[in-house]
Every structure is written in C-alpha cells, then in structure tokens.
Write a structure and sequence with these properties.
It is a single chain. The chain is α+β, with helices and mostly antiparallel strands. The protein contains 4 helices and 14 strands.
C-alpha cells in the first residue's frame, strides 16, 4: 500500500515537473501572449468607456444638468409668502383721457388688486394733469378685483392726452376666506347691454346724444343700500366713452332696467362693458331686512 502511494506521488511530481519545464521553455511566448491579451482587454475597456462618455455627453448630460438645477432650485413660493405676510402693490394700467366737450375731459384707468387674501379697505386717489391735480377721491379694492377708476367731467382750459394716477393712504386688511363670501353675495346678472346711437333714438344724426341700456338683477339673498355701475364703451380695444351710474336700495331678487344718456359725440361703438361696484366687505353696503308683522322690533 505504501509503495503504491509513493508511486502515485512520483507520477504527480513528474507531471508537475513537465509542466514547469514547459512553462520555462515557453515563458517568452506566454509573456508575449499575456501582454497582447491585456492590451486587447484594455482596448476593449477604453473603447467601452469612450462610447459611454460620448453617450453621456450627447444624451444624458442635459438631463443631469436639468436635474441638478431642479435640486438646487429654491422650492419656496416667494410670491405666495410675500402675499401671505405683506400685500402685493396695486397694479395700474394705462390711463385713458377722453375729451367730451371743449373744456371737459373724462379720465379712466384700470386698477387691479393682485392679492387673493388682502382687501384694500380704503385708499385715496387722484390724477396729475400737467401741473394740475384732480379732486381726491376715496375708493376700495376687493381681493383679486379688477376695476376701473375714473375722474369724470374734469374741467381744463388746456388740452391734454395723458395723465398720471396717484394712490395714497392705502389701508390693507387680511381676508383669507373672501372667495366663499363672494360666492354667496356677488350674484349680479347683467344682460342686454346695448349702445343706442342718436339715429336709433329717433334723433337727428347731428344731435350728439346716444344711450346705453342694460338689465341687471340682484340674484343674491342680500339687499344692498347702493350699487354703482361703471359703464365703458369700446371701439375695438379702445375706450371711447365712460360713465358711472348708481342704483339705490337694490334688493334681493330685484331686477331693473337701466338707461344712461351720453351728451357728446361717440362715433361707432363695438361693445359695452357694465361692471358692478359694491364693497361687500363693508357692512354699510347692506340694508337691513324688512321686518314683517309679528317679528320682534
């Protein structure tokens, strides 16, 4: 048994010796083959890496750059935060000047409250016309309200085509739940707004009298002590006429027909804008409900 084991060891040793001898004899060939193999592998890796970089810069770089910008971009809504803590300023449009007579002018400008939860309860405004100043008026702007401010029938011996509005003494109040209130109260239905020229009124063409008429209904459950209506006449996008009228004691479910005369030449009119104006955040805008017999006084 022991002799057989030794013979097996001798056979294994002979194999190892033959293998070692072959390696020694062919070591230069093996070294050369290894170098070539490593070079091929390195070339493949370099080619793969180059293709990867080319693909990255061609297709994925922009995506990565956009992702990086999104990561570092501020996530805060600064406009919202500013409005939450301080109201944004009133936005003012272009002032329109209308010459109605030889020395009479109407001045109109669009004003917008960009704040959804801030109420401009009171402010004074006037127009600067050259070195002159119009009368100081007081008004308001509801949250998100877009409305026209005006100085009508202003007397000036000098012609002018431009004016500048000035707002002063602005008094802001926070009103976070205004939209729900507006949905309940602001229910004015205006229809059949129409411009009637002098000829349609049965007057001579040279008579400078025309008329605007419209129907309005108070579809809310509230009685208003007074509701103003700004009426603008347009030729295309240009304002060619302006006036303000008022309805006193405009009660719930009441409907009225309104007619307004213009006593100056307007030319052609394409459209009529009628906009109600009432401060629904001011309790004095509302009338008390009438008490019926049997109710407590």
């Amino acid at each position: 048994m022991e002799e057989q084991y030794l013979k097996e060891q001798e056979k294994f040793t002979e194999k190892e010796l033959k293998w070692s001898y072959w390696v020694v004899v062919n070591k230069d060939k093996l070294k050369k083959s290894g170098t070539i193999t490593l070079a091929i592998v390195a070339g493949i890796l370099f080619l793969y890496g180059s293709i990867g970089l080319l693909f990255f810069y061609s297709y994925q770089y922009k995506e990565l750059d956009n992702l990086q910008k999104q990561i570092i971009a501020p996530k805060l809504n600064y406009s919202y935060l500013q409005e939450k803590n301080n109201p944004l300023p009133v936005e003012i449009g272009e002032v329109t000047v209308l010459k109605t007579k030889a020395d009479k002018f109407d001045i109109v400008v669009e004003a917008r409250n960009p704040n959804q939860s801030w109420y401009l309860a009171s402010f004074d405004y006037y127009f600067l016309v050259g070195t002159s100043q119009t009368r100081i008026k007081t008004s308001f702007l509801l949250p998100s309200e877009d409305r026209y401010l005006a100085e009508l029938n202003w007397t000036s011996q000098t012609n002018f085509s431009d004016a500048q509005i000035v707002l002063e003494n602005l008094k802001w109040q926070k009103k976070p739940d205004f939209e729900n209130l507006k949905a309940k109260v602001w229910k004015f239905a205006i229809d059949n707004a129409d411009f009637v020229a002098a000829q349609q009124l049965g007057l001579a063409e040279e008579v400078a009298i025309s008329q605007v008429k419209f129907n309005v209904a108070n579809q809310s459950a509230y009685n208003f002590s007074r509701v103003d209506f700004v009426v603008l006449l347009f030729r295309g996008s240009q304002i060619v006429g302006a006036t303000i009228t008022a309805l006193d004691e405009f009660k719930s479910e009441e409907a009225r027909e309104v007619k307004i005369n213009f006593y100056y030449s307007l030319g052609s009119v394409d459209s009529v804008l009628v906009a109600p104006v009432v401060d629904i955040l001011n309790p004095s805008s509302f009338m008390a409900f009438e008490k019926t017999a049997g109710e407590l006084k």
